[in-house]
């Protein structure tokens, strides 16, 4: 049927695309869930009817079904925008939103609707239900709520929704045709037109649609035929009571207007026909009611009239209330024909309010007896509604009305009075006869009359009990034979066992409980708590956290189970909310076992064991099956060295939950501490290691105790892999575990953890030589040599002397190295490690060949590979200049996965040979194996800086400085990284806090270049002098001295410094390039190619930049014009230099000079200004900038300042004479 209706609506729209029937088509499509087609129909229809409110609402409703709430809200907004004071639009939208469960969006719409309709109880009810849903109450049951839109969003039958044919004005209507058969007459009759005063343009689609109401004739025999009198002749448009069914057309008013009051009874004869003569009267006389005049359907139904107006009219209700019977002519005739009810209800404005009352003469012409019989036989709903206003208890014959004398409206009153008397007597006689029959039948009841009611009730009860029992048995079978209470108890027991599998079983039972009662608060609370435990203990999956929060936020869950709610909040809290959640947990007075168990754990973590113990005890008093509380209590005893009680508690926990991982681990740790049942403990830990459900958080602890048990049972090889994984030990008496953990942490590069482990071991046994040795080696790995000597300086023992010797070797204090190694000798023999240190001491003292022979012999005769001996041999080869042999030994030593010193030494060797790209791999491996090794960090940082990866190098020095802030080497490396990054002031500040030794040439040289960058030429010169004094042959120091002379415009002295560099270190690029930089004009034709070749082979980016800068100067000196090819090549070389070393003033100076030669003054001034800022002590940079600024009048003042700065820096140079002559003239021009 729905498909047929859709096709018929589509056919109508095809005939008239502008028809408003598109609304009904959209409703039908929505009912079939064809939302896309409904949207398309609304879109086309709104093109012709843009002000259609219901069209917009249906469009929005379709979008909501498609999951597009934002677009739906746009359509609702446009519907409201048609008329913002139209309460009907708000009703439609509010109903749609509530049906879709969008209560928050529906609330403001319903509020507006209630404000526009303050007396409409239906809207207020919808609003209250929606507010309750948002406040945590139950969602509104839409089916139980009274409609506020008259079901306008539901599709109508096609006959009601189809538009009527164009009406013919009643004034011009032809006389009615002769009567035809009833079926043909009903089909051929056309509805009258709506009142002309209703303009279609002012009404929405609902008011433009009209419905036909078919009032059926009441059953019963028709009155006897008689000729019509003159008074009964009907006019065109008048309704004849005796003709079959009558069609009445309702035109809903645009607003809730109250129809005019019904005419007085004596004027009924003059009532004009409908719509023809009363149209103007309807438009002019219909008053607009106030808000209090309108009555809601519910209120009207409550008053006894139902949702439709009373058929007896206001006068009849008044008569009923006073206890008087209504006149016969106003009651019986209306019931027999159905027309008088419409006339009397005209004051109510109901569905039949538009029909005129019948003529009084017609009522008088019908015999009273006939009217009484028709009334007695009727079963019309109008009759029942009419009689509802009477007394609550009615007699058996109340349905038989008394004969009432009708009003006499003609001259034949006497005859009619006699007829009425006869009818009254007949009725009285009939009533008496009926009463006698009833009394006789009551005196002799039959079997069924006596026991029929009881038998019927018993049968109904038996059927009900049978159906109930069947349903109960079926439900019990589906639920496993358990009630809701039993399922929840089993769920609680599963959760208390505190394992992953038990949690999964609990969730399955919670699903079963929700099938029984979907909104059960306890089931929802247990669901939230279970997901929270999974999140906290088993992987931390975000999905588990979301499930916990979603279940706990459902209405009524937190209020009914506050303890579970608080525990859930703590378990799923993030870092920001954790403190607040814990505070709420501890301050709560809830007495649930879950809250007490978790509160005790939190207090134990906060170092409040006494309060924690109280909570644990209370948790077990509330529920002795709480395994989580038992395990936490066992941990409490274990922390306080009460291992016997810990074993008892853990044993109880394992009886309740045999597979609980934490109880098993705690039992093993307690057994190990007591030295009892170690084999059983080891077997249990081996089985636990194969358990895939073991929480990730317990893997480390399980591996730790497993390895410790293996070591205790004489299986160190199997224990080493577990201990290398690294974990944290538990318990104050696990001294051997702490030593093993420290060693494993050292091997894995986790030196802070190793240090903590050894320090904890020392706290337990302060005189333990093994713990002190481990601590000393961990500190050495972290380059904290001074701390090693402070903590182990007075300790005795050969192993401790060996550690101190290693510390002195880091400081290259070989005399003390020999002194400490003498203490390790036993029977004139040294341990292999001591042999390595002794050989390096001999090599440092000039006995390299002797050291080489000893190390080669020790390496060959060692029964096991000795990485430390190979590292020492590689360093001795390096000192002897045997670079290839040194590299081979160090690469062999790097094969040890735990060694980092071999990789560091190999990287430093390659870096010293000018191969930073090759050094990068071993240095990176060294840092990966031990990120706290300062020597490796320093070498890796320098390699990255040399390759131009300044940011990465800066990170290496920063990490080294942060880990060892007291190390002067770390601070100097950090200052170097700052200088290379252009942060000159910060570099100077860092270096100012470092005490540079008198013999530290590199430290003095670094301070000099930083001071030059800050413009402190005097301080920089002094630092360079100290560096040269301590290292007279260092090429880098003399390169900086040459640049110092260049800054002061002393070219000859600079050339001499570069010459010394070439003499002492021929392979140094600084010396090879410096000669061409000092005298670029004396270069030959092959010099540019030479410089390009040197730049390509330069080991560092600053050497490459220096070569490119020199190339630019050489090409600039050979260019003859601004368009010379050499000048363009010079520009490219200068730009490349700036790119390679952006914080070098020399590169910017070369770029500025080239730009000046190209007559590009602005770029030249910019580059020269940058050169002056990066190297304020460079006199030639100031001179070049002054010359560039002197070309324009507006920059003469600044030019004078630059000339004066030049004279302060290089007042004795050749260029100073020219400046001194030029300066007075410029000053006059400035004035």
From TrEMBL:
<keyword id="KW-0802">TPR repeat</keyword>
<feature type="repeat" description="TPR">
    <location>
        <begin position="1035"/>
        <end position="1068"/>
    </location>
</feature>
<protein>
    <recommendedName>
        <fullName>TPR domain protein, component of TonB system</fullName>
    </recommendedName>
</protein>
<keyword id="KW-0677">Repeat</keyword>
<feature type="repeat" description="TPR">
    <location>
        <begin position="87"/>
        <end position="120"/>
    </location>
</feature>
<feature type="repeat" description="TPR">
    <location>
        <begin position="627"/>
        <end position="660"/>
    </location>
</feature>
<feature type="compositionally biased region" description="Low complexity">
    <location>
        <begin position="364"/>
        <end position="394"/>
    </location>
</feature>
<feature type="repeat" description="TPR">
    <location>
        <begin position="1145"/>
        <end position="1178"/>
    </location>
</feature>
<dbReference type="InterPro" id="IPR019734">
    <property type="entry name" value="TPR_rpt"/>
</dbReference>
<feature type="repeat" description="TPR">
    <location>
        <begin position="735"/>
        <end position="768"/>
    </location>
</feature>
<feature type="compositionally biased region" description="Pro residues">
    <location>
        <begin position="162"/>
        <end position="180"/>
    </location>
</feature>
<dbReference type="InterPro" id="IPR051012">
    <property type="entry name" value="CellSynth/LPSAsmb/PSIAsmb"/>
</dbReference>
<feature type="compositionally biased region" description="Acidic residues">
    <location>
        <begin position="282"/>
        <end position="296"/>
    </location>
</feature>
<dbReference type="InterPro" id="IPR011990">
    <property type="entry name" value="TPR-like_helical_dom_sf"/>
</dbReference>
<dbReference type="Pfam" id="PF13432">
    <property type="entry name" value="TPR_16"/>
</dbReference>
<feature type="repeat" description="TPR">
    <location>
        <begin position="593"/>
        <end position="626"/>
    </location>
</feature>
<feature type="region of interest" description="Disordered">
    <location>
        <begin position="156"/>
        <end position="396"/>
    </location>
</feature>
<dbReference type="Pfam" id="PF14559">
    <property type="entry name" value="TPR_19"/>
</dbReference>
């Amino acid at each position: 049927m729905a498909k047929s209706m859709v096709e018929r609506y589509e056919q109508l729209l095809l005939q008239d695309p502008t028809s408003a029937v598109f609304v009904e088509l959209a409703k039908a499509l929505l009912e079939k869930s064809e939302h896309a087609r409904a949207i398309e129909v609304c879109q086309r229809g709104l093109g012709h009817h843009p002000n259609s409110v219901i069209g917009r609402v249906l469009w929005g409703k379709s979008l909501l079904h498609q999951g597009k709430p934002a677009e739906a809200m746009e359509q609702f907004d446009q519907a409201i925008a048609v008329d913002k004071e139209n309460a009907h639009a708000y009703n439609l939208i509010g109903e749609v939103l509530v049906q879709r469960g969008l209560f928050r969006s529906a609330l403001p719409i319903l509020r507006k609707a209630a404000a526009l309709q303050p007396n409409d109880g239906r809207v207020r009810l919808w609003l209250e239900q929606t507010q309750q849903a948002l406040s945590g109450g139950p969602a509104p049951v839409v089916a139980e709520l009274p409609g506020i839109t008259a079901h306008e969003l539901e599709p109508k039958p096609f006959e009601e929704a189809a538009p009527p044919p164009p009406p013919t004005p009643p004034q011009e209507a032809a006389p009615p045709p002769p009567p035809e058969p009833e079926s043909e007459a009903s089909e051929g009759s056309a509805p009258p037109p709506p009142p002309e005063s209703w303009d279609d343009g002012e009404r929405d689609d609902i008011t433009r649609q009209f419905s036909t109401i078919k009032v059926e004739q009441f059953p019963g025999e028709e009155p006897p035929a008689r000729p019509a009198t003159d008074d009964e002749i009907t006019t065109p448009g008048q309704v004849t009571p005796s003709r079959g069914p009558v069609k009445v057309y309702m035109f809903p008013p645009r607003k809730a207007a109250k129809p005019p009051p019904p005419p007085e009874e004596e004027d009924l004869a003059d009532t004009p026909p409908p719509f023809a003569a009363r149209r103007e009267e309807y438009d002019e006389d219909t008053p607009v009611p106030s808000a209090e005049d309108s009555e809601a359907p519910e209120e009207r139904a409550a008053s006894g009239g139902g949702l439709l107006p009373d058929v007896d009219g206001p006068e009849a209700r008044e008569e009923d209330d006073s206890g008087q019977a209504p006149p016969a002519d106003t009651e019986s005739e209306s019931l027999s024909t159905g027309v008088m009810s419409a006339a009397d209800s005209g004051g109510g404005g109901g569905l039949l309010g538009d029909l005129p009352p019948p003529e009084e003469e017609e009522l008088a012409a019908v015999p009273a007896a006939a009217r009484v019989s028709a009334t007695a036989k009727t079963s019309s709903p109008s009759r029942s509604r009419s009689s509802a206003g009477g007394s609550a208890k009615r007699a058996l014959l109340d349905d038989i009305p008394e004969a009432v004398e009708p009003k006499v409206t003609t001259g034949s009153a006497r005859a009619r009075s006699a007829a009425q008397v006869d009818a009254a007597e007949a009725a009285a006689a009939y009533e008496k006869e009926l009463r006698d029959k009833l009394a006789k039948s009551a005196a002799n009841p039959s079997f069924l009359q006596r026991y029929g009611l009881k038998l019927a009730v018993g049968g109904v009860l038996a059927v009900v009990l049978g159906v109930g029992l069947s349903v109960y048995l079926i439900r019990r079978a589906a639920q496993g034979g358990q009630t809701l209470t039993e399922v929840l108890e089993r769920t609680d027991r599963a959760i208390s066992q505190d394992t992953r599998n038990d949690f999964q079983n609990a969730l399955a039972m919670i699903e079963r409980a929700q099938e029984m009662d979907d909104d059960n608060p306890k089931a929802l609370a247990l669901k939230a708590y279970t997901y929270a435990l999974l999140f906290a203990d088993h992987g931390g999956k975000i999905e588990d956290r979301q499930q916990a929060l979603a279940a706990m936020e459902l209405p009524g869950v937190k209020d009914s189970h506050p303890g579970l709610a608080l525990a859930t909040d703590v378990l799923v809290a993030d870092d920001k909310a954790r403190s607040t959640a814990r505070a709420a947990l501890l301050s709560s007075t809830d007495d649930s076992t879950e809250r007490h168990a978790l509160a005790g754990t939190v207090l134990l973590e906060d170092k409040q064991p006494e309060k924690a113990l109280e909570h644990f005890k209370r948790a077990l008093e509330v529920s002795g099956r709480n395994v989580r509380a038992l395990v936490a209590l066992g941990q409490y005893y274990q922390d306080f060295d009460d291992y016997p009680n810990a074993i008892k508690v853990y044993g109880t926990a394992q009886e309740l939950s045999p597979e609980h991982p934490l109880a098993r681990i705690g039992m093993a740790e307690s057994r190990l501490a007591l030295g009892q049942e170690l084999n059983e403990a080891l077997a249990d830990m081996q089985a636990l290691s194969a358990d895939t459900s073991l929480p990730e958080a317990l893997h480390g602890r399980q591996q730790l105790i497993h390895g410790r048990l293996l070591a205790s049972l004489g299986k160190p090889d199997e224990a080493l892999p577990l201990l290398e994984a690294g974990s944290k030990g538990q318990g104050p008496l696990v001294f051997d575990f702490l030593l093993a953990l420290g060693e494993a942490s050292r091997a894995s590069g986790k030196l802070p953890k190793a240090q903590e482990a050894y320090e904890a071991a020392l706290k337990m046994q302060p005189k333990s030589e093994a713990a002190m040795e481990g601590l000393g080696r961990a500190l050495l790995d972290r380059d904290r040599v001074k701390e090693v000597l402070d903590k182990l300086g007075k300790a005795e023992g050969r192993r401790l002397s060996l550690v101190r010797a290693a510390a002195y070797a880091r400081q290259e204090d070989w005399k003390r190295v020999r002194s400490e190694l003498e203490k390790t000798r036993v029977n004139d023999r040294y341990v292999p490690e001591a042999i390595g240190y002794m050989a390096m001491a001999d090599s440092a003292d000039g006995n390299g060949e002797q050291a080489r022979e000893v190390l080669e012999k020790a390496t060959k005769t060692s029964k096991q590979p000795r990485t430390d001996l190979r590292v020492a041999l590689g360093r001795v080869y390096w000192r002897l200049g045997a670079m290839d042999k040194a590299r081979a030994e160090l690469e062999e030593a790097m094969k040890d996965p735990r060694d980092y010193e071999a990789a560091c030494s190999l990287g430093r060797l390659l870096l010293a040979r000018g191969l930073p790209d090759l050094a990068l791999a071993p240095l990176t491996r060294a840092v990966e194996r031990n990120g706290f090794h300062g020597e490796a960090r320093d070498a890796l940082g320098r390699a990255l800086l040399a390759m131009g990866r300044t940011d990465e190098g800066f990170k290496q020095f920063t990490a080294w400085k942060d880990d060892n802030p007291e190390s002067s080497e770390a601070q100097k490396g950090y200052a170097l990284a700052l200088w290379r990054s252009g942060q000159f002031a910060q570099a100077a500040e860092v270096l100012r806090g470092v005490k540079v030794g008198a013999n530290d040439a590199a430290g003095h040289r670094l301070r000099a270049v930083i001071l030059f960058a800050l413009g402190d030429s005097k301080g920089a010169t002094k630092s360079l002098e100290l560096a040269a004094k301590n290292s007279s042959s260092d090429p880098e120091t003399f390169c900086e001295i040459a640049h110092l002379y260049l800054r002061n415009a002393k070219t000859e002295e600079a050339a001499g410094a570069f010459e010394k560099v070439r003499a002492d270190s021929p392979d140094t690029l600084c010396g090879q390039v410096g000669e061409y930089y000092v005298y670029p004009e004396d270069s030959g034709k092959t010099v540019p190619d030479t410089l390009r070749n040197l730049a390509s082979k330069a080991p560092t980016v600053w050497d490459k930049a220096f070569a490119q800068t020199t190339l630019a100067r050489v090409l600039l000196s050979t260019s003859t014009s601004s368009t010379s090819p050499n000048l363009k090549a010079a520009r490219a070389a200068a730009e490349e230099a700036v790119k390679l070393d952006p914080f070098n003033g020399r590169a910017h100076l070369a770029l500025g000079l080239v730009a000046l030669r190209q007559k590009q003054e602005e770029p030249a001034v910019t580059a020269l200004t940058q050169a002056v800022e990066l190297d304020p002590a460079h006199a030639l940079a100031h001179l070049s900038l002054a010359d560039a600024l002197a070309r324009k009048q507006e920059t003469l003042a600044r030019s004078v300042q630059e000339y004066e700065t030049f004279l302060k820096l290089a007042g004795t140079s050749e260029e100073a004479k020219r400046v001194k002559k030029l300066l007075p003239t410029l000053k006059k021009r400035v004035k």
